Amino acid sequence: MKNLFTKLLFLIWGITSAQCVTNGTLNATSLGNNGITSVQGWQGSHGTPSTAGVVNSNTWVWMWSHSGGGEGIFTNYNFVQGQSYQISFDIKTSTNISNPNKTVLNSLVYVKALNNLSQNAGINTLLNNGQIVLQSTIATYRSSNWITVTVNFIANQNYTQLSFFPYMAANSSTNGSAQVQMEIDNIQIIPPVTSVFHFEDANNNMKTDFCEGESILLDGAASFGESQYYLDVWRRPIGTTGAFQWQTQIAGNGWTQGQLGVLNLTSIFNGQGYAFASGYEYQIKVATASPPCVGWVPTTHEFRVLNSNASSLFTFNSFCAPDGTISVTVTANDTSSGVNHWWGLIESSVAGSITDANSSGLVGTIQSGTTTTFTGLSKDKNYYIKHGVYNSCVSWRETRTALPQTAAWTGYTTNFSINASNVGNNVNVTAIAAPNSVFVSHHWSISYAPNGNTSGNSPVVGSNPTVSNNGGTATFNTNLVINTWYYIKHGTWNDCAPWGETRKAFRIVIQGKSANGAVYAIETKDVKEVFLGETFNKLDDTTLLEQLSPNPVAKGNSCTFTTDSKNVSEVIIMDLLGKSSTLNFSIKDANSISFPLENSITKGIYIIKVIKKDNSISTKKLIVE
C-alpha cells in the first residue's frame, strides 16, 4: 500500500496531454472560406478565417493580414488574475510571395487575452485592448512544418477570452502585393492547480501539535483550481527519524471529487474505523488535480498528537563514580513520545528536605530527556531531584525526591596488608592498602597496642599520621622495636562515603638463628574493619514483599514494616553517620510489625534494619519529615 500514492500520481500524469480549452484541435465540420463557423467553441473576431485539412481527421484554421486588415479567431476561457497558465499551440506562418521584404517579414503574430469580444469585433478592438500573451514576427515561425510554441502567462486581471491573429500594418501594394498568413492548430491551456493546506483546531487556530482526542482539521481552502483530491495518512513515533509508515486513506481508494476545502480529519477517519493515537507524528499527503487538464499536484505536511496525561514520577540510582564522587542516574516512569522532561539537581540546607524554603539553588544546568545522569555530588551536602513534565496538552507537573547522602560501590574495603623488617633493633613497617574500584583518600597512623589491643589511642612518638590523596601505602620506621605490640590504623573516605577504618595489631619477633644472624617474623592479630554502621554497600531496597510505610513519615508517628512478624528479633534505626539505636516494636499481625518514632528525632534520612531470628537482615531507607 505504501507505493499506492506514487503509482496513482504516475497514472494520472500519464493522461495530462489532453487539452483543457474547448475544441483546442480546431475540429471543423466543413472546410474553406469562413469555415470557422463550423468549428465548435470558436468564432471569428474579424474577417472570415478559413479551415483546412481533412474533416473528421485533422483540421486547422488559416488566417491572413495586410494593409491593417485581416482575419482572427477567439474562444471563451476564464483567466484568473495573478494565476499562471501554460498555453501551447502549433503554428506555421508564410507569405503569398516568394521574396518578401523585411517590412513584410516583421509583421506580427498576436496571442491575446481579452474581455467582451464579439463576433466581427474588428482588428482595432483586438489591438487596443487586453493583455498580450505572445507577440512575435511572422519570420519567427515561417516554415512549411508545424512549430510547437509554449508560453507561460500570468493574467494581470480577470479575462474571459483568448484570441489568435496575424497583423501586417504595411500597405500591400507598396510591398510587392504581399500579405502574411498564419495557420493555427492544437491549442492547449493548462490551468494552475495548487495544493495548499494547513492544520487547525475546531476554533480555527493554526497548529501542528494536537492533544489526544482533540479534533484535527485540515484547511485546504487556499488550494486553487482542483476538481478532485487524493488524501492518505502515514505516521512514525514522535522523536524518531525513520520512514513514515502508511496507515489509511480517505474514502475507499483515497479519491474524492470536488475542492479540498476544510476537512475534519478526526471525524472522517473515525468514521472509517481509524483513530489518531498519541505519541505519533502524522504525515498527511494530499494531491489536487483538475483532469484532464492538470495531473496531480502533491503536498505533504506533518502534525503530532501528544500525550494528555503525562506522569512526573521517576526512579533513581545513586552510585560512586571512579573519581570518588556520587553520580545519580534518573529515569522517568513515563517515556511516552511527545512529553518534555525537565530535570534539576537542587542543593538543600536540610537533609531530606524537598521544599523551596530550604533550597540552596540549582546545581549545574537543567537537563532534559527521559533519563539523565548528574555527577560530582558529595556526601557532605544535601540534594533532591526535581522532575517536571509538560507539553502543549499537559500543564507543568512535578515530582521531588530527596537523595541519600552516600553511595556504595562494589568491593568497598579499608583493609590493608603489612610488610615488616628489622635491621638490628630498628623495626621498619610498610602498610599497603587493599584496592578500591573508585578513588578514596587514605589516612595512616601507628599507635601502641598493649597485648595486641587496638582500642587504645597512644601514638608512637615521632611517627606522625600520614594522609594521602593518591596513594595507598605508608611506611613507619621511627621508635619501633622488636617484641612490642603496635597497631596501624588505616582510614578511607571520599565524597561517596564517610570515614571507615581498619586496625591491625602486629609485632616483630625473633623466629630463630641462622648463619647470617637472627631470623625475624611478623605476628598480627585483631583485624577490625568498621564502616557506616556496618550497612554501607549492603542496603537492599528492592524487596517487593517487604515494604515500609508511611515513607516519608512525620516524627512522632509510627511506621509499619510488612514481613514475617514472628521471625523478627530486633529493629534498629541508624542515621547516615552510623549512629544507631534500638526501637521498640510490636506485632500487628502475622505479616507486619509496627514501631514508633520519638518526637525528638531529627528530620533526615535513616536506615531501618530489621534483624530476623534466622539471622537474616532486611534494610530500608526512611525519610523523617
Automatic annotation (TrEMBL):
Keywords: Signal. This is T9SS type A sorting domain-containing protein. NCBIfam families: Por_Secre_tail (TIGR04183). Residues 1-18 form the signal peptide. The lineage of its organism: Bacteria, Pseudomonadati, Bacteroidota, Flavobacteriia, Flavobacteriales. InterPro entries: Secre_tail. It comes from the Bacteria.
